Amino acid sequence: MIYYKVGLLPLTNYEVKENIRDYLLESRKKERQPGFYAFLQTIENGMRSNTSKIFLGSVRNSENLTLILNAYAEKVLIDEVQKTDKGVKIRLAAESSNIYTNEEVILSAGALYTPQLLMLSGIGPTHRSWFRDDSGS
């Protein structure tokens, strides 16, 4: 049963019967303890879906999409005059290459690496003041 669907992403409240899980969930409800809870999962028709299956499934073999596996993005290449993205510098094995696009760069490098990649590309703060210590010391 699909609980909720965000675009193509199916979110389900998939019922798994596991004694220890059920015991922890029940004890959390009674004692109001944070840290353990039931969560929504990306399961559709009894099978786990992942972003590759969901978002690339129908366009994986499209002529205007190129997938390069095991590549490491080093920076987004910026057209300094137009202030737009024009490609990506990648490292594949021990070799760096620039890949250019006529359309757009889709950046999806995760919660930690996306901001780092943007900063390495000259986008965002140029200093580390946003790492300030808020503890007062």
Name the descriptors.
137 residues; alpha+beta; 2 domains; three-stranded antiparallel beta sheet; 3 helices; 25% strand; elongated
Structure description:
A hairpin with a 2-residue loop joins β6 and β7. The chain has helices at 19-31, 51-56, 110-120; strands at residues 4-6, 9-11, 43-44, 47-48, 71-79, 84-92, 95-100. The mean pLDDT is 77. The radius of gyration is 21 Å and the shape is elongated. It has three helices and seven strands; from the N terminus they run ββαββαβββα. With 137 residues, it is α+β, with helices and mostly antiparallel strands. A three-stranded antiparallel beta sheet has the order 5-6-7. A two-stranded antiparallel sheet has the order 1-2. It has a two-stranded antiparallel ribbon with strand order 3-4. The chain folds into two domains: 4-56, no CATH class; 71-128, no CATH class.
Blueprint of the fold:
Elements: E1 4-6, E2 9-11, H1 19-31, E3 43-44, E4 47-48, H2 51-56, E5 71-79, E6 84-92, E7 95-100, H3 110-120
Task: Characterize this entry briefly.
The chain is α+β, with helices and mostly antiparallel strands.
Distance between the termini: 51 Å
Instruction: Choose one word for the global shape.
Output: elongated
Order of helices and strands: EEHEEHEEEH
Class by alpha and beta content: alpha+beta
Tally the helices.
3
Strand order of the largest sheet: 5-6-7
Radius of gyration over alpha carbons?
Answer: 21 Å
Total strand segments: 7
Q: Which percent range fits the helix content? A: 10-25%
Q: Quote the average pLDDT.
A: 77
Report the sheet with the most strands, covering strand number, pairing sense and barrel closure. Answer: 3 strands, antiparallel
Number of domains: 2
Classify the beta-strand content into a percent band. 15-25%
Domain Glucose-methanol-choline oxidoreductase N-terminal: 110-124
GO molecular function, one term: flavin adenine dinucleotide binding
Cofactor: FAD
Family: Belongs to the GMC oxidoreductase family.
